[in-house]
């Protein structure tokens, strides 16, 4: 779980990235006098949703950190440094270790997630209520099954689609994802039915309801950002124009005129109804005028324009993505013991004693001189030392143990350096058996014996 500060930073980067994408998209659309086809605009808006919802900044940072090992320059200068594990992202050989949340951060995050969950539940409830009420007014119709099957086959739609009739003066609409339903209303005539069915089935083929739900999640996640609401509004319009475009490219000029008349007729007669569904045409005169102009237009995008527009949008939108760089420390050069200790530690001390090029020897405890002869030993409080064999001795069954508290030090060679691990133990002064072993710290010497520029302590 990311800490609140890091989470807010990530959310702002995602919001900024998505906003830049959408604003440049609007600018390009304006400069080209809305000459982009609806299908291309729809593709761009889907990509825009990705920038808003997917944590691209965090994924970028994790990939960059994992494949391009880099630590901040400050750890190369002399001094003592303390790292609170609640504020840093750590990299180990086994993966990433995310900071823990403070109690108040957990409460705030819980409230935020609860608010989002509450809105989601309310939307689900609204849809279920709409579905229950509308079903009371719906009558399943099978008179047009052959016509429906023919259009489905032409559009290569595999889903089961149910056709209903509603005796209300509202726009025909489609609802449902897994088992979509098309509702024909009293405004649908025998002459307009086929074109309306083609339009509604195109919505199903394009999975428009799914992408509309994704855009609602954008509004939910970025409710503080007015751009998210503009994205949702534009997506709804582009979805309708995309369906118009897919159909009318195959129409003759006369069929285009007929299709336009159908939209105008339904829009002028349809009563307003707010529901989680996709309508054929609603009484928005400005948008209707835009749709009619697009229907009579036969413009196509050049491939070069599509590539250029996509590159411009992605490049500028990636600036916040690459700007995201939370404080991260890479421990993969450290020992396995250190990396394991980090997972259970609350803070870390890093002591840098001299620069990399310094030949000045590092001072170390006198007792560590014993490492020239032994790999491990126990240091008692009175200063006495008990050397140990390379492997810890198992307790002798017949030994009358005389345990004594002490500090176990172990020397582990690592390349040109070494690691000195320190444990608190109880050791038998007779058979040297060890009990109650608990790590205190792990010291990493870059140069061994003790000609190093830095040492590292992990405090538990």
Account of the protein in words:
Helix content is 46%, strand content 20%. The chain is an alpha+beta fold and 460 residues long. The chain is elongated and about 105 Å long. The chain starts with a helix and ends with a strand. The C terminus is likely disordered.
Report the structural category.
Answer: alpha+beta
- Provide the low-confidence segments as ranges: 72-76, 354-358, 450-460
What is the string of helix and strand elements?
HHHEEEHEHEEEHHHHEHHEHEEEEEEE
Distance between the termini: 21 Å
Which word captures the global form? elongated
What does the radius of gyration come to? 34 Å
Our count of helices gives: 12
Question: Tell me about the biggest sheet?
Answer: 5 strands, mixed
* Number of extended strands: 16
Proportion of helical residues: 40-55%
| Strand order in the largest sheet | 4-5-7-6-8
Bin the strand percentage. 15-25%
Average of the residue pLDDT scores: 81
Q: Could you provide a short overview of the structure?
A:
The protein has 460 residues and is α+β, with helices and mostly antiparallel strands.
List keywords for this structure.
460 residues, five-stranded mixed beta sheet, five-stranded antiparallel beta sheet, 12 helices, 46% helix, elongated
Topology overview:
Layout: H1 4-31, H2 38-53, H3 56-67, E1 79-84, E2 89-92, E3 95-97, H4 103-136, E4 138-140, H5 145-155, E5 162-166, E6 173-175, E7 181-185, H6 193-205, H7 208-221, H8 226-248, H9 253-269, E8 278-279, H10 285-296, H11 303-323, E9 328-330, H12 336-344, E10 347-352, E11 376-380, E12 385-388, E13 403-414, E14 417-428, E15 434-445, E16 454-459
Parallel strand pairs: 2-9, 5-7
Antiparallel strand pairs: 1-10, 2-3, 4-5, 6-7, 6-8, 10-16, 11-12, 11-13, 13-14, 14-15
């Amino acid at each position: 779980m990311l800490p609140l500060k890091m989470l807010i930073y990530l959310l702002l980067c995602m919001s900024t990235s998505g906003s830049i994408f959408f604003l440049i998209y609007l600018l390009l659309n304006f400069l080209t006098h809305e000459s982009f086809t609806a299908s291309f605009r729809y593709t761009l808006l889907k990509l825009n949703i990705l920038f808003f919802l997917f944590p691209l900044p965090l994924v970028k940072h994790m990939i960059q950190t994992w494949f391009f090992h880099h630590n901040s320059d400050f750890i190369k200068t002399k001094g003592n440094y303390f790292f609170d594990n609640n504020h840093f992202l750590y990299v180990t050989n086994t993966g990433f270790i995310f900071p823990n949340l403070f109690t108040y951060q957990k409460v705030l995050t819980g409230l935020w997630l609860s608010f989002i969950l509450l809105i989601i539940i309310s939307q689900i409830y609204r849809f279920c209520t709409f579905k229950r009420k509308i079903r009371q007014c719906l009558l399943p119709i099978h008179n047009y099954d052959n016509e429906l099957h023919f259009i489905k086959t032409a559009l290569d739609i595999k889903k089961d689609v149910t056709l209903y009739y509603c005796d209300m003066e509202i726009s025909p609409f489609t609802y449902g994802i897994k088992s979509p339903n098309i509702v024909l209303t009293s405004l649908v005539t025998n002459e307009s039915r086929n074109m309306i069915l083609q339009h509604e089935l195109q919505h199903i083929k394009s999975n428009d309801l799914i992408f509309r739900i994704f855009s609602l999640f954008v509004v939910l996640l970025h409710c503080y950002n007015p751009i998210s609401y503009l994205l949702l509004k534009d997506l709804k319009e582009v979805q309708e124009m995309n369906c118009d475009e897919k159909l009318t490219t195959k129409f003759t000029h006369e069929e285009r005129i007929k299709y336009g008349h159908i939209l105008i007729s339904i829009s002028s007669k349809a009563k307003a109804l707010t529901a989680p569904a996709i309508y054929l045409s609603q009484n928005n005169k400005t948008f209707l005028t835009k749709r009619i102009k697009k229907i009579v237009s036969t413009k196509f995008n050049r491939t070069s324009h599509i590539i250029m527009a996509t590159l411009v949008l992605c490049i500028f939108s990636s600036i916040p993505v690459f700007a995201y760089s939370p404080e991260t420390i890479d421990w993969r050069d450290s020992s396995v013991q250190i990396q394991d200790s980090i997972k259970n530690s609350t803070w870390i001390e890093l002591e840098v004693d001299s620069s990399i090029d310094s030949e000045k020897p590092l001072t170390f405890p006198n007792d560590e001189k014993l490492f020239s002869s032994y790999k491990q030993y126990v240091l008692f409080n009175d200063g006495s030392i008990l050397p140990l064999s390379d492997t810890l001795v198992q307790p002798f069954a017949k030994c009358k143990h005389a345990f004594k508290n002490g500090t176990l030090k172990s020397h582990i060679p690592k390349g040109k350096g070494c690691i000195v691990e320190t444990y608190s133990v109880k050791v038998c002064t007779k058979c040297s058996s060890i009990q109650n072993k608990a790590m205190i710290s792990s010291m990493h010497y870059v140069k061994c014996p003790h000609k190093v520029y830095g040492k590292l302590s992990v405090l538990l």
